C-alpha cells in the first residue's frame, strides 16, 4: 500500500464548509417551513439568509478553483461504467468483490459518483440557490417588473431542499463504503489515502511525497 495525496487543502476546506452550510440551510429552512421549532422563526430566517450568502461565496470560489486547477476534468473521466458501479454497490460490495474502478489522483470519482455529483452541482444546487434568491427578494419583484408565482417558487425550493437532504444522506452512507468504514472520512480530513502499490505516481512525484502548496 502507498500513501497518496488525493485531496488538496482547499478541496478539503471547501468540502467541509459546504457540508456545514448545507446542514445549516436544511435545519433552518425546515424550521422556517414549520417542520419543527428550535431557534425561533426570526432567528432561523436570519441564519438561513446568512448561510445562503456564504454558500454563494463558496460556490464562486469553488468554481474558480475547479477551472484554474483543472479539477473540472474529474467529471469528464471515462473509466468504468455506471452500471458496473451500481452492480458493485448493490451486490458486489456485500460479497467482498474488488472495486471495479481504481481511484487515482487524476481520477478520484467513479462513474456513478460523477453522474451524481454533476446532478448535484448543475441541477440541485442551482435550483436551490435561484429559488432561494427569488424567495428572498419577493418584495422587490414589482420594482423589477417580475410577475412570478411565489407558490411555484416555494414548491421548487422545497423539492430541491428535499433532494439536497437525500443527496446528503446518501453521500454520508457512501463514505462508509471505502477500504474501511472510516477511511474515506479520514482521507477527506487529512488529504492522504492508502492505495494499492500498482497505482502509479502522478505528475512525476512519488506517491507519498507532499504536493506543492499543500
What does this structure look like?
The protein is mainly α. The protein has 2 domains: 1-69 and 180-200, no CATH class; 79-97 and 108-148, no CATH class. The chain contains 6 helices and 2 strands, in the order βααααααβ. A two-stranded antiparallel sheet has the order 1-2. Helix 1 packs across helix 5 (150-174) and helix 4 runs antiparallel to helix 5. It starts with a strand and ends in a 19-residue tail after the last strand.
List strands and helices in order, with pairings.
Elements: E1 2-5, H1 9-32, H2 41-69, H3 82-90, H4 111-136, H5 150-174, H6 183-190, E2 192-195
Antiparallel strand pairs: 1-2
Helix pairs in contact: 1-2, 1-5, 4-5
> Uncertain spans, ≥5 residues at pLDDT below 50?
199-214
Query: Percent of residues in helical segments?
Result: 55-70%
Q: Approximately how much beta-strand content do the residues carry?
A: under 5%
Spatial separation of the terminal alpha carbons: 22 Å
If you average the pLDDT, what whole number results? 84
- Series of H and E elements: EHHHHHHE
Classify the secondary structure makeup into a structural class.
Answer: mainly alpha
Q: Tally the beta strands.
A: 2
Give the tally of structural domains: 2
Number of continuous helical runs = 6
Biggest β-sheet description: 2 strands, antiparallel
Properties at a glance:
disordered C terminus; about 210 residues
Quick structural overview:
With 214 residues, the chain is mainly α. The protein is built from 6 helices and 2 strands, in the order E-H-H-H-H-H-H-E. Residues 199-214 have low confidence and may be disordered.
